[in-house]
Amino acid sequence: MIKAELIYNPHGGQVVVRHVVEEVVAFLTRNGWDVAYRETTKPEEATQLARKAVQDGAEVVIAAGGDGTVSEVASGLIHTGTVLGVLPLGTSNSWAIQMGIPALNPLWPSSRIAKVYADIEERIDLPMPANYYRKVLLDAAQVLVDRHTVAVDMGEVSGRYFLMWAGIGLDASVLGSVPPMEKAALGTWAYLITALGAAGRSSSPDVKLTLDGKTIEVNTQLIVVSNIQLYGGIMAIGSRAVVNDGKLDVCIFKGDGFFTFAQHALKVFSGQHLDDPKTEYYQCSEIIIESCQALPVHVDGEPFTQTPVTIRVLPSALKTIVPKNAPGNLFGRS
Fold first, then answer.
1. What CATH class is the domain 157-315?
2. What is the Cα–Cα distance from 210 to 81, expressed in whole angstroms?
3. Of the candidates 161, 291, 272, the residue with the CA atom closest to the CA atom of residue 227
């Protein structure tokens, strides 16, 4: 019997799907799991619940929600023997998509249709046939049952942990400005549209970075510090990132203005940004970022603080369940 706790954030995606979550719990129970079910009601509560689950002896804690929920639960499990499981119920589902866990792609129009269908099922309080969202999540639950566990790095900035990335500058500003209604209606597209508009209005301050003791100075409006390759579930900004190498990947996009940002975005989508002289890429274990004007900082998609900040890696700090066929280029030798 596997003792587990499932922590569901009903506000983590574009729809509420308790019916589907209950089916996942039933599926796990049929496969020999003893699952306690919890729902969050406020920000960062998932971290508190995860820590409590560890104290109560849970072997696995399942984050049922979006990237923010996954990050919060992971933060509660760091440096413990309890394993993170993921049920992707968010807008972007970056960790799940990166690892090959079944999830809805944020850019596919069909994903929105599937969520609306599931939302109708929830509202009428009656299971509906051909619920594609249910199928995807039950496939993700099978990954949990298979229990292929690996140890991965995490990052830390100003006392807060992150699993995927920290963003400094433009993206952090955008995350704090997208209205909830737009996010619910447009999903990932809401961030992309807002970013294009913000890029034309923002300037690039002078920034000093100290990378494992080496100092560089650049003019930039966006820095992404990655632990995984995909950003937002769609862009391979940290294209050389390995999740268990004891390093974080730093991508610096130089220049400012709408057209510069658009060129950066196109090169990221086409996988050519590392060949661009306006992009600098480093791998290191500690990054100190200072700027002539304070820049906003987010961790795993949640607005957090502002520069100056020190970011460091925590090697092999988390155990997590991934598919047996997770992309091999994400992992170095253990």
1. mainly beta
2. 33
3. 161
Query: Does the 2-147 domain belong in CATH 3.20.20.140?
Result: no
Beta bridge partners of 60: 4, 83
Q: Which two tokens stand for residue 275?
A: 């060949």
Ramachandran angles phi, psi of 25, nearest 5°: -60, -45
Q: Give the start-to-end residue ranges of the domains of the chain.
A: 2-147, 157-315
In terms of residues, how long is the chain? 334
Q: Which helix (H) or strand (E) holds 25?
A: helix 18-30
Separation in Å, CA 275 to CA 138, 215, 264, 279: 40, 22, 11, 8
CATH topology match: 2-147 vs 157-315:
no
What is the Rg, in whole angstroms, of the alpha carbon atoms belonging to the chain? 19
pLDDT digits (tens, 9 = 90+) for 21-52: 999 999 999 999 999 999 999 988 999 999 99
pTM for the complete prediction? 0.88
Structural tokens at position 166: 């920290």
Backbone φ and ψ for 161, nearest 5 degrees, come out as: -90, 155
How many helices, marked H, and strands, marked E, lie in the chain? Answer: 10, 15
Q: Are 7 and 46 contacting, i.e. CB atoms less than 8 angstroms apart?
A: yes
Extended beta strands in 40-173, E state: 60-65, 83-88, 149-157, 160-162, 165-169
pLDDT digits (tens, 9 = 90+) for 12-21: 665 778 888 9
